[in-house]
Every structure is written in structure tokens, then in C-alpha cells.
Amino acid sequence: MELNKLTAHELIEKIDKEEITSQEIISSLEKRIKEVESKVKAYTKVSDLNLLCPTSNIKHPTSLLKGIPISIKDNICTESLNTECCSKILKGFKPPYDATVIKKLKEAGASIFFLKTNMDEFAFGSSTENSYFGPTQNPWDLECVPGGSSGGSAACVAADEAIWALGSDTGGSIRQPASFCAVVGLKPTYGRVSRYGLIAFASSLDQIGPITKDTRDNALLLNIIAGPDKNDSTSINTDVPDYTKSLGLDIKEIKIALPKEYFLSGLDPEIKDIINEAINKLKSLKADFKEVSLPHTEYAVAVYYIIATAEASSNLAKFDGVQYGYRAKGKLIDMYKKTRGEGFGEEAKRRIILGTFVLSHGYYDAYYLRALKVRTLLKQDFDEIFKEFDCIVTPTSPTSAFKIGEKIEDPLKMYLSDIYTISANLAGIPAISIPCGFTKKGLPVGLQILSKPFNEEMLFRVAYAYEQNTEWHKMKPKL
Amino acid sequence: MKYEPVIGLEVHVQLKTKTKAFCGCPTEFGKEPNSQACPVCLGFPGSLPVLNKAYLYYAIKTALALNCAIQEKHKFDRKNYFYPDLPKNYQISQYDLPLAKKGYLDIAIENKIKRIRINRVHMEEDAGKLIHQEDLSLLDFNRTGMPLLEIVTEPDINSPNEAYEYLTSLKNLLEYLDVSDCDMEKGSLRCDVNISLRPEGTSTLGIKTELKNMNSFKGVKDSLTFEIKRQQEILTEGGKLTQETRLWDDQSCSTLPMRLKEEAKDYRYFPEPDLPLFINDAKIIEEIKKTIPELPHQKLERFIKAYGLSESSSKILIANKKDAAFAEECINEWPDKDKRPVVNWLIGPLIFESNNRKCNISDLNIPGGTFELINLIKSTEDEKISNLTAKSVLSESLDTAKTPSQIIKEKNLEQVSDVENLNKIAQEVIKENARSVSDYKQGKDNAIMFLVGSMMKKSKGKANPKTAQEILREILNTD
Known about the structure:
heterodimer, A: 479 residues, 10-stranded mixed β-sheet, 14 helices, B: 479 residues, Arc Repressor Mutant, subunit A, 15 helices, 20% strand, elongated
């Protein structure tokens, strides 16, 4: 049996029945990584396969997760393990502490994989091409990108090089790669999961979330990582329900909104057809659909690239070569300039410059302040919809996975691939992407479901109902 | 033309909370470099700030004592600039929504009360310390993230003396509130100055200079005196001032240019996304208000009213909270209604001794405590010992740890007041000093003092001089 192909909940069951041990899971993952990692390149580096997990974490027969391993995105701090945001500037950085989510996972008995998953440098990108370690390939078509920025996490789960993984989502960085790789990716409500230990891209938008093979695993993982944290003032003090309890509830008369702005000309007609089929499937499960409008949607990308870059320009100021990471030689000012000039990649520099500009004296009001105001309007759009509807359904991305190199020279084109995912981050609401079909070329397509803040239960309920009546999540890439 | 100085002060006070502003590091001064630093105050990737509640509490208490309006909402902002002592390369400060606004502090100047308006009071974290050596610079991050309060006045100060008086009053107030050590040498109180000149009688503001690097209140006063003269000379000669920042140099007692306004930095302030907007709870503010002790000006008024003290004596006694409490204890123990004897002792011999011993009067630790002190003063009032003797008894008592009454007893210092004994000595003195006796009889009244002095000598200082004089006059006048 290839244990690496199973889901976490299936593995937990087998360990419970004493059919397998967590060590066997790790061995099967090792074997798989040896076979396919050179094609997929989902991890930042693979040097010593015997050191995939710290052995101390494997002995948890009574714990919830029983030593099942998890793969972690390279921007989530893991004590004494390289955490480099796939950037030269953080070369060799080993955090002195674990992120809150890692602490929670360890307490629940997870084995933290030594290998970190590949990503766009500092999560700046939608293709995982902006990585200091080189691009990750999409397991469904090695010439295509896996999406990004959590492309490594999505690809390793899709390629069965991991049981499940954590990603981070600032404008779609979990959902878009999940959609490109036919896995389940959730961006929780802002404040649902602690950001302590997540190396910040844009603090008011970032959330850590699960990337899994099915909806049950996703709910299970959120159960573990969610909750308030005294180390994160933006985490919100509300109870964490048992999300697995939402699985299996019917969706009869659930009110679903279809925002017309998400189905306009930018949407690939083939994707549109696949999404419509998915909608029909949900209709057949007796969900009520109605077309609505989210009038400020067209401003979302513009607002996002002002707020996100503004925060990023400040968040990334700390990478100056003084305390950790890469340092160029030279006197102070020279050292600063060279360290940052040599340490950051193209896209990071572009965003730092953009963010610095929009915060500059004389431009602040016209850009940053105005963006904040439009952000409020965008939020209000969603508030209005959720007064009447339980959730919103849209495509996750306007296209399926594109070719490696196709958009890398055209940042604007690249930015538009997040057009359907960005609003959830700006509004702080939860959103999930689930597999809902394949293009003629065999590339995965994702369905996005959004709901009001702290209603992840609704997302799981609808996603699971859909999943129970389709086979998409069971498809495996040929590698 | 006569010019009037227009001065505004920006005071940074370090609040004496047990832990730093946004993390749990201790705040003790003088510890081994970098022994009091953690991922949060070091700005490590992934770390997040959490506001220390005691910091907010102390800040509100201080702002209330400065008669400020605590704002309904306040928030933190990032002040972005690169400097090695600032590990995040931004400082968490408050920009457009500070904690408190519009207060005042009354100061006494030339026997009048002058109101200095406070523009704003805001919270911000401190930077680290750079220690420059010959060919390298060292960093100590122990001070990084210390809780500071910035108190900014309106340009209501018009002379170096007023500036000095404001700082003294502010320091006194902060000590009464017990919120800061106010030690300029340790850097727990720092002051920057804005100064400009304008033709007397006009109300326009001239071109201002910012002064930095003053290490004492006297330094502030001296730098202002220098700067007023410098600006006056330029203006009188028809020259033009440039807006600039100048550094006070203690060695040469002059200000030296540091940077021009054109070089001023753009700090790109924007809301700190890692901290929420704070809503100040009116109930909690009321609670904090109740903890404000009697403040210096209130104590001053009460001392004058309740004990009938002069303003100048009261001012000396309230200059220090502990001394004021000690003084009040003594005054209350003084049995007579007229409190002047004990007050005269407090501001006389006790201040003299405390100056000699470089401590506060409350720290003198008089053997036998206030009980003995009151008895000693009472003995002079009852003319059992002379004032002069009492002073030396106090001094000896402090040196030897013997109580004053013990010393008086051991040395047999009680004055001789019985007429019979003194009569005998008077007769002897009259016999031995024929010249003075005849001088007195010829109308030179002063000569009596010589005879009294001789009686004192004969009695080894124990004769009650008042009684001695009366006896002498009686004998000589009836002769």
C-alpha cells in the first residue's frame, strides 16, 4: 500500500487500528520524494532524506495526529530549521522559536517535516517562479506553474510527496495554487489563525491555512491551528468549533450568491463552463442560487497592490544584514544597499519600491488613504450580501495553470491571476478552493466558496457536500 | 529691535514598567548588553508586538495628571527609517491618533503662575544603543522596545528659565506619579527643543531650530541661552536663519549644525497593522484617575493653607515626594499650632545635613526617628539647649547613630536657666570685665553682648543666653 497517497484522516484510522506506524508513512514519503521530487521541485532543497522529520516527534501513538508528518511553507518559522522565505536575503536563517501554528501542531502530535515547501520569494507572486531556489513544476503538467505563492505546498500534496501542508494566503496564495493543483486550500477568516511566526508579507491580509487532499483533512487541520493567541494582537478571541461537525450536513436551501463581476470577459470560457457545471451540481443538491453584484470588485486588484506593497515595504525593512541572513561587505550605508540590492529578487524590489512610493509624503492621501477607503467599501459589499446569503461561489482563478515563463515578464498579467481571490483578503472573510474539474488539456480547475467572517463551517459544509457527489479530489497526476 | 524667544519642548520619558512596551523582556537598567532582548524586541522575522497593559495604564495616568483629554480612540503607527539601533527599521509610535491631547502644566515663574499648554502625549518604543569604538560600533538592544512617553508642549515657553522651570515641574510631577525614574543620565528622561525668535510684540513664528543632545536641565537652559544669542546676532545683522537641527556640545558650550530641513527624512508613517485600534474605556480611565496621588501643586497649596507655611518654604518641602511626606509627618507630630519652628528646622539644619550627606532629608535616618527630632527642636523652643548646640547634636547624632537625647544627656548639654546659678556667674563676669561694664553704662548697649558671651564661655555654653542677658541688665541697671 502506498501510504503517502492517503489522507491524514485515513492514516489516523489505520494507526488507530495498529495496521501501520507513523514511521512507515515517513518511509513511503521518502520513497515518493526520491521518485518525483526532481521533477516537481516542491521543496526548497532535498539533501538528506533520512532527516525528513525529527524522530522525537514520531512517537505519539496516543496523540491526535499520531506522528503524521506535515510539510510547512518556507515563510512559517520552525525552530532551528531553515526558514528563508525562498530569498537569498534570509539565507541560512534558523528561527530561534516556533510559530504558534507549529507549536500547536507539535502539541497535537504532528511530525514537522524538515524540508520546507517552495514559494515565491516572501510570497510575492502567483506562480512560485520568484523563488531563490528556482521554480516548482505543476505535477499535472511539468511545463506549467503550480500557482503561488504557496506553490510548493500545493504541489507536494498533489504529488503525494506530503500528506498535507500549511500555506499562507495574502491575496490568494493558498487558493490559487490549490486550484491549479487539484487540492483543497483554505484561507481562514483574518484573525482565526495566529500569525505569530509567519514572516509577514502584508500584516493586515496574511493568514496561514491548510492545503489538503480533501475537505475532511482541511477541517481537521483547521481544528488544530485555529484559535486566539496572546502573542498575536490581531488574532480574535472567539471559540473554535469542531469543524469536522459541519461535514455531512446537507445543503438544502442554503442560499448561494453568484456575483456577476466574477463571470465577465476575463474568465476563460472553458473554466466558465466547468464552474457552471459545478454550480449545477450544487443546484441538484437543492442549494438556492441567485445572481448578485459586488460593485467594487473592479477596484480590488488596485487596492490590494497599494495596501499589500505599502505594508510589505515596511515589513521587509528589517532585512538589512545587521542581525541575520545575508550580509554584503561594506560600510553601513553601503552594506545596507548592497545587502538589499543583492539579497532581494526582482519582484521583491518592485514591491518594496511600489510600497515606499505609495506611503511617501505627498502621495499617501492619493494612494494609501484612498485605498483604505475603497477597502472599507469592498467590505461593505460583502456585508450586504451576507445579510441575505450563506455563501458566495466563484471560480478561484480566471485561468488554469499557465506555462512556466509565460507571465513572469509581465507583472500586471501576473497580478490579474489573483483577481478572484484578493477580495476575500481585503474583506477579511474566509474562502476555500476545492477541485471541480479539469480542462481538455488535463489541468485542474478550482471552485471558490466564500462566507462571512468566522463561518468556515459553511465553507466546509458546502465543499464536503460537493465533494461527496464528485470524484475530482480523488484524481491523481501521472508522474 | 528686541526679539522674543518662542520655545517648545519635546520630552521623552521612559516609564518604569516591569517589562518592555511590546514584549515580556525585563526593563532593568545596566544589565549585560543584549541580555534583555527577545525575538519581539529584536524584530525577528515572524514576531509580533503585543501592547503591555501596564504601559498603557502609566501613560493614561500621566496624561491625566497633565490635564490632557484622553482620546476616545488611539492607534499605533510605524515610523520608517533605517538605523542600526532600530532592529525592525521602523519604530512603533503614534502619529495622527495619539493617546491624549490638549493638556497643560502650570509653572511658577517670577512669583507668577504661567500655564504651559501640552499639545499631545503619545506612546512609542525606544531604540537600542550604539556604542562607538575606534574602528567598530557595537549594538546593545537592552533598551530596544522600552516604553516611552513623548510629551510635546505648545510654543508657550519664552525664556531659558521658563524651560528650566517647566522641566523641573514636569520631573517633579512624574516622580509624584511614580511612573518614571526621570534620570537624565540613564536616559530615562530626554528633551529636544524647538526655538525661534520673533520681534517682540508680534505673533508670527520665525524660522525654528531644533536642538538635541542636551544631557541635563542645565544643558537645556544653556543651549537655549546660546541659541537665542546666536539667532539674535544673525537677525540683528540682517541675516537669514535656516531651518535646521543643531546639536548641543557640552564641551564648547555651543550648538553645532547637524542637518538642514531639506535633508529631513520622510518617515512614511502608516497605521501599524500588527496592533488593533484601541478604544479607551471611560470606566477604566475613571479608575486610573482615582489612583493619581496628591500632585505637587496641590500639596503646595495645602501646605500653605493647612500649616500656614510660606510659599517659599513649602516649595522647598514639596520638591521631592518622599521629603514632602517626611516633612508632613514632622509637622503633624509638632505639638504646637505654630508650625514655624519645625519648618525652619526642616528647611534649615535638615537640608544642610542632607546636602552634606548628599541625600534627601527623608533618607537621613535620624536615630530615634521623628520622635527624637521633634524633641530636639522642642528643647530649643523651651530653651533647654541653644539652637547652635542643637544643630551640632543633630550632626553628631547622624555621625554616631546615637539619639540626640542620649548625646545631650551624656554631654550634659542642657542649658542652665536657674537664676541663682546664673547670678553668680554674672557677678564674676562683671568683676572681670570692667571696661565693658563702663561701656554699657555709658550707653553702648552692644557691650552687653560681650558680657553675655563671657557668661556662655564660663558656663561652657550651657547658659541660657536670654536669661543671662536679663540677669546682667538687672544687675547693671540697678547698680
